[in-house]
Amino acid sequence: MSARQHGLALAEILIAMALSLLVALAAASLLHASNGDFLHNGANTRIDDSGRFALAIIGQSLRQAGYAGEPGAMAAAAAPTPLPVEGRDAAGVASNADGLGDAQPSVNGSDAIAIRYAPAAITGAEGGGAMLNCAGFPADPGEWAWSIFYVARASDGIAELRCKYKGENGWGSDAVVRGVDAFHVLYGIDTDSPRDNIPNLYLTAAGIVALDATLPASERAVRTHWRRVTSVRIALLLHGERGSRAGNLLSSYELLPGADPAARIDEASLPLPMQHRARRLFTATVAVRNQ
Questions:
Q1: Is the dihedral of CA 54, 59, 62, 68 positive or negative?
Q2: CA dihedral of 269, 278, 181, 158, whole degrees rounded to 10
């Protein structure tokens, strides 16, 4: 083989190798893009399912808030009647404390809400088990049951919306959904006299405490504005797995626009592994009908 022929053969080999590398690079790019789409779609599906489930559980508990039992039940005659709804801003909850207990550090300023009701006195097939706490367990007739929602970190560091309840052997706390960025609550107050059960003003828990502070100390327990709560607005921001959102842009999320400036999440302020994730905001307003 002449030097010219040898050079041409070498050039052909190099060209073939270059084309093979280009094809491999294109295939790898397509695979990477396909994997990103798979992660994004899967994360959004899981976020959607989790958000809907969380709203359903919280909504069910709120619709039971303040129910005092069937006529003739011990709970109906109990005095004083506990607050149907009570909350705290930017606070966690100790899982083994009584009720809300002392305020604990919060996750991204998330709120906590406690809901109380008395189960129906009817038992058996007619109505037993119809009223459940946030963990899905029925409470004994004649007792005031609890459903407390707050955000805490699991043992692996992932934040989750938790449900705290009082069982037969003491207090329990179970995860409702994982992957929670923040949970915030507003309370609709009926300020009319006489009351018409229609909220005129939405306030944070701190706002209600401030209103109560204007009442004479001897009347706060009876006239507390917590007993004027006729609806509750909840906002829940959930995130997906790492790498579930493409691009370099960072987003901001207003959980309760115009109502609570503290209910805001900026991705730029989050740890790097928590940025660039699929996220979705879930909101709902639930009437409290049993006041």
A1: negative
A2: -100
Give the whole-number percent of the chain exceeding pLDDT 90. Answer: 53
CA distances from 74 to 64, 84, 169 (A): 17, 17, 21
Cβ of 249: how many Cβ atoms within 10 Å?
Answer: 8
Task: Parse the chain into domains and list their residue ranges.
Answer: 35-287
Q: pLDDT tens for residues 174-187?
A: 999 999 999 999 99
Q: What is the pLDDT of residue 50?
A: 95
Residue corresponding to tokens 């990103």:
36
Average pLDDT of the chain, as a whole number = 84
How many angstroms separate the CA atoms of 78 and 93, rounded? Answer: 26
SS3 167: strand
Integer Cα distance of 156 and 19 in angstroms: 46
Quickly list DSSP for 57-108. Answer: HHHHHHHHTT-B-STT-HHHH-SSPPPSEEEESS-B--TTSSTT-S-B--ST
Tokens of 170: 């003491």
Both tokens assigned to 157: 């560091």
Going from the C-alpha of 289 to that of each of 21, 66, 76, 131, the distances in angstroms are 68, 8, 16, 15
Cβ contact 247:254 at 8 Å? no
